[in-house]
Amino acid sequence: MRVSQFFLSTLKEAPAEAELISHKLMLRAGLIKRLGSGLYTWMPLGLRVLRKIEHIIREEMNRSGALELMMPAIQPAELWQETGRWEVFGPQMLKIQDRHQHDYCFGPTHEEVIADIARREIKSYRQLPLNFYQIQTKFRDEIRPRFGVMRAREFMMKDAYSFHVDLASLEQTYQRMHDTYSRIFSRIGLNFRAVAADTGAMGGSSSHEFHVLAESGEDAIAFCPTSDYAANIELATTMPRGNTRLEPSGAMQKIATPDQKSCPEVAEFLGVPLEQTLKTLAVTANDQFYLLLLRGDHQLNETKVRKIPFLANFELASAEQIIAEIACPPGYLGPVTAKAKIVADKAVLEMSNFVCGANEAGYHLTQVNFGRNLPVPELVFDIRNVVAGDLSPDGKGILEICRGIEVGHIFQLRTKYAEKMQATYLDESGQTKVMEMGCYGIGVSRIVAAAIEQNHDAQGIIFPLSIAPFQLSIIPINYHKSDMIRSEADKLYQACLETGIDVLLDDREERPGVMFADQELIGIPHRLVIGERGLKEGLVEYRGRRDEAPRMLPLKESIAFITQQLAGY
Amino acid sequence: MRVSQFFLSTLKEAPAEAELISHKLMLRAGLIKRLGSGLYTWMPLGLRVLRKIEHIIREEMNRSGALELMMPAIQPAELWQETGRWEVFGPQMLKIQDRHQHDYCFGPTHEEVIADIARREIKSYRQLPLNFYQIQTKFRDEIRPRFGVMRAREFMMKDAYSFHVDLASLEQTYQRMHDTYSRIFSRIGLNFRAVAADTGAMGGSSSHEFHVLAESGEDAIAFCPTSDYAANIELATTMPRGNTRLEPSGAMQKIATPDQKSCPEVAEFLGVPLEQTLKTLAVTANDQFYLLLLRGDHQLNETKVRKIPFLANFELASAEQIIAEIACPPGYLGPVTAKAKIVADKAVLEMSNFVCGANEAGYHLTQVNFGRNLPVPELVFDIRNVVAGDLSPDGKGILEICRGIEVGHIFQLRTKYAEKMQATYLDESGQTKVMEMGCYGIGVSRIVAAAIEQNHDAQGIIFPLSIAPFQLSIIPINYHKSDMIRSEADKLYQACLETGIDVLLDDREERPGVMFADQELIGIPHRLVIGERGLKEGLVEYRGRRDEAPRMLPLKESIAFITQQLAGY
């Protein structure tokens, strides 16, 4: 492609509304243009990237045996009413009425539609398993769309849905999708991690998220660098260190801590490590009052608390409730002397000589010890997020925490949808059985942003070769002034096309600096510069997007050199 | 692809709601499944056809120099309010409110969005011309969706929009799109015709429709078989034959024609040719009463009437108005003795000795002649549709009428949208000018139905090779019982794949009749049958989908033979 026949539209500065680096760079490079809140046009340059990602996904999905189809974006309400999700899905679902006042939605996902197809089309166990997928525009009415295509309202998604006679077959396809996703993200060239995840609102049993690792990621992931273990920190199980409590080092004391309410404040005020403080949280559940105990540097994990049967519907206690129960304002609570049910996190049991609230405004207790100043808690659970330094749940190392951008999610839905929609088949003995179901999503457009979050520098985007809008940029100096330059540049360009190199020839009448800046901003991985001085010696200048400096190559060998670079990137 | 790993789902009978043959066959072949009114899922088999059409369109659009982008499906109301189309477009446009009660629509077309991009991105004449296109899901809320994907609500469209400094540039791109569309429909293998068309609600000047010729087509097209001329019958100009009126053959007579009101009734009652009768239509415009005269076998063309300035807002007169003006009920009107303004179609001037209403209930006049019984009309216009047998407007032959399915439409929009949205550029002298604009649509999903309307027989679909879901079907007899058959079929299948033949191997445990019927129904152009008897002599049976009878081929030569067929189809 010649730039003169293409549409480049780069910006020096990103619009003020962009916060995330990928959002800024996508706008500056002209990959996307904003149409409205959470709505973006994919400009020709950006669409080339998106299509390359689509192509990789399609190839790998086909290789896995999945069959591509295309369901309507607009879905009748009736199907969603069958599963009860018409009401449950909430305002993220864009609801629509047609001219006859019939209810529809712009599909945020397609479990209902595909289950409807399955129940009408699949009669016998002989037809199973089946795995259908589509690559399609979806819409989710985010309350606050932001970060460009990272959290847009209209976006491109690959969604797949599999149907099975039993769990064993579902597990087999689930594993195949796990492998397929790994191949897809590897081929794209992303640093990613498959992470055990909560099944959340989608229901079902097993679930994995695929995260592109990047500091700006919204999700915190606990992983073990010495094993395969990775999980969303909300889901990762904490492991007791197994440390026994130390002997009391001195008598418990009540110390004035005026206006020091949080653990970090108290720790600093008293000059003790934060891990030496105890966090006491007051909650209520079923009209019962509880104090939850955590080490001062740990965070409560609400999901874990809700899995404790008697705390399933817990709420944080109000200041009024706390004063009524403990006669003490929040900030000075502690388990000693409190007449409340105590629920302790497992890590608390290993604490000794710790600091906690005195249940008296402006005072804390120090040198507190279980068994001496208060009973050892009986209700002990895992109710916190893991932190870096925790033992890995697989026992194979020490956890680290990183941040990730979710680009894929696979679920074993089991029979949740199939049962409600009566998606059944006849088994070998002629009996009617409910199908097992899996679903598998990839945020196609989001991958572009995630890849940029992971691959950029001060000059702009550094696209992985597999999804770069062009593989090679040819920049001739004085293309419009020098016949020799123009002729050689055109020849090289033509030779690239014939070799199958995806090449962009910058034939604009622009200063070299502008052309270099554009090539770097839009992230073309390889660059050849044709200048008069080099050409006289038969040389061109090559620079890889990540290279420290350019180097000179014989013009005659440049195609072979680039071909080698493309193969071995 | 092996049928066992694919998803075939054919039906013996089409669902009752399908009227059109393409709709019936698409449902029977399992290309599509209905989700709701005007909403269809493209099943894996149908999607293969759609994707092949998409691929041809994309290749040819790229070859023409157009640049692919992708605009959002959801569009903010504000843009449509700028052009006034938010109100004008009518209930075909699906309007939507998001969670913040902001107005949007599911884009039925994208003139506003692209003009918004153009006005923000195009600054200088140096950037022009530009032609952007997308292949995208559109939605039009048809009042009565029918005929399957032919008139669906959600459908796939290729829409392109070009921008220019002047009309000459627009005309150049318009011609290039005309040529590109011809190449696209030719490559797909359709019998089509480019037809001059009315610009209608889209506005602008020149416009052509591309029609696939088929008896079931909704549009009537006048064409000249001895020249290039073709036009929608609403647009085709009628040409006077140039016949002079005959001398009166007898005196005018008033004849009782009880209950004979329409021209055909009167012609039959009196035993005269329909062409000998005169049709008199009463209309009003601007409080003035008119009688429009047409030959009895001709049809009024309202579009043409509205182009006559004083009839621009005409309406058919009510029975009350007619009685008030002529003192005669409808059905017996005529120009003789009527005190009304007369507007005659050009063909009427060539009539003599004709029959018309007597302006008296139950009576008609015969042997009526201009110049004798009434004055020669002064207001003479072309106000009828052309009919077969008319002279071609290009003077190069006699018109015929055929029916067509519109699959493409190109428009010179000129500055209609650009002016309202202030899409301007700076010309060479630094002056601000409004861009000229063209738009170019193809109904991608509709092409599948149109191709089937044009290519089918009693057994089912006969897909053109270029868009067939598979090029070749291999049907082994007793695949599951005979090791020899299975081994040879597998070998042949593998060899096809390696040669790049898009092949479907029917490895089901089905009766041969079922497999043959499926291959014919889904319209695979070529078929090889492997049976034991033939195999013993090293032969396989070949049959082209349109062949009268099968023939035997040496198995060894079958790949070469098929390759030849694919190249020369």
UniProtKB/TrEMBL annotation, chains A, B:
NCBIfam families: PRK09194.1, proS_fam_II. This is Proline--tRNA ligase. Its main location: cytoplasm. GO terms for cellular component: cytosol. It catalyses: tRNA(Pro) + L-proline + ATP = L-prolyl-tRNA(Pro) + AMP + diphosphate. Belongs to the class-II aminoacyl-tRNA synthetase family. ProS type 1 subfamily. It comes from Nitrosomonas halophila. InterPro entries: aa-tRNA-synt_IIb (IPR002314), aa-tRNA-synth_II (IPR006195), aa-tRNA-synth_II/BPL/LPL (IPR045864), Anticodon-bd (IPR004154), Anticodon-bd_dom_sf (IPR036621), Pro-tRNA-ligase_IIa (IPR002316), Pro-tRNA-synth_IIa_bac-type (IPR004500), Pro-tRNA-Synthase_IIa_type1 (IPR023717).
